[in-house]
Amino acid sequence: QLQLEESGGGSVSTGGSLRLSCTTSSSDARTYTMAWFRQAPSKEREGVAAMGSIGSSIYTDSVKGRFTISRDNSKDTLYLQMDGLKPEDTAMYYCAAYRWKANWLAADAYKYWGQGTQVTVSS
């Protein structure tokens, strides 16, 4: 069993930046694919970015060039650097780990989830 906890959310203006962190309870996370998802009210959960255990990464088209996913295995922590934020980025952001299906950006591919951190971007 793996516990995940997100932090770093907040309220910013359009064009601002935030850095989200996801701490994990075990170094076992170093072997897992990890990902960031987001969900706005009344909308489906959307895959934002994912990173494999050896550092490969993918992003949904809407955040390419603005968001950067990274991981620090010495701290068992996953990060999401969010630059050039837009109002449409407003959502609850979730960290996920342990991919057991092929699609890296599908919510049902992941076993472990954090409770989320809210990101709000004002226009």
Explain what you see.
A hairpin with a 6-residue loop joins strand 4 and strand 5. The chain is an all-beta fold. The strands form 2 sheets. Strands 2, 4, 5, 6, 9, 10 and 11 form a 7-stranded mixed β-sheet that branches. It has a 4-stranded antiparallel β-sheet with strand order 1-3-8-7, with no helix packed on it. It contains no helices and 11 strands.
Strand residue content = over 45%
Tally the helices.
0
The structural class is mainly beta
Q: Specify Rg, calculated over alpha carbons.
A: 13 Å
What portion of residues is helical?
under 10%
Biggest beta sheet summary: 7 strands, mixed
Order of helices and strands: EEEEEEEEEEE
Short description:
With 123 residues, the chain is mostly beta strands. The protein has no helices and eleven strands. The protein is globular, with a radius of gyration of 13 Å.
Core attributes:
123 residues; mainly beta; 11 strands
Which SSEs are present, and which pair or pack?
Blueprint: E1 4-7, E2 10-13, E3 18-24, E4 34-39, E5 46-51, E6 57-59, E7 67-72, E8 77-82, E9 91-99, E10 110-113, E11 117-122
Parallel strand pairs: 2-11
Antiparallel strand pairs: 1-3, 3-8, 4-5, 4-9, 5-6, 7-8, 9-10, 9-11
